[in-house]
Amino acid sequence: MKKSYTASFKAQVVLELLKETKTFAQLASEHGVAVTVLRDWKLAALKGLPDVFERRDSVTELKLAHERELAELYAEIGRLTTHVNFLKKKLPS
């Protein structure tokens, strides 16, 4: 069975790796994680680091886009509700 780790645990271990006070082998034995897994986590963290600073702008853009889409969907719901009510009145039961 594959072992699963939380994101906070991974972040903590990667921070220790980045401090470079201990070797991969030492950290692997302390935390019970394979050395190759630690290398993968470190590479993933280093690759994702630039996105941390870019996401601030994209998050506000996403929020604005979400709000626009939500407004459009509510308008569509209103139109469809009006159509349904009209058809209910016009069609015989």
From TrEMBL:
UniProt cross-references to InterPro entries, sorted A to Z: Homeodomain-like_sf (IPR009057), Transposase_8 (IPR002514), WH-like_DNA-bd_sf (IPR036388)
Pfam family, one: HTH_Tnp_1
A single MF term (Gene Ontology): transposase activity
Single biological process term from Gene Ontology: DNA transposition
Protein name (Swiss-Prot/TrEMBL): Transposase
Species for this entry: Kouleothrix aurantiaca
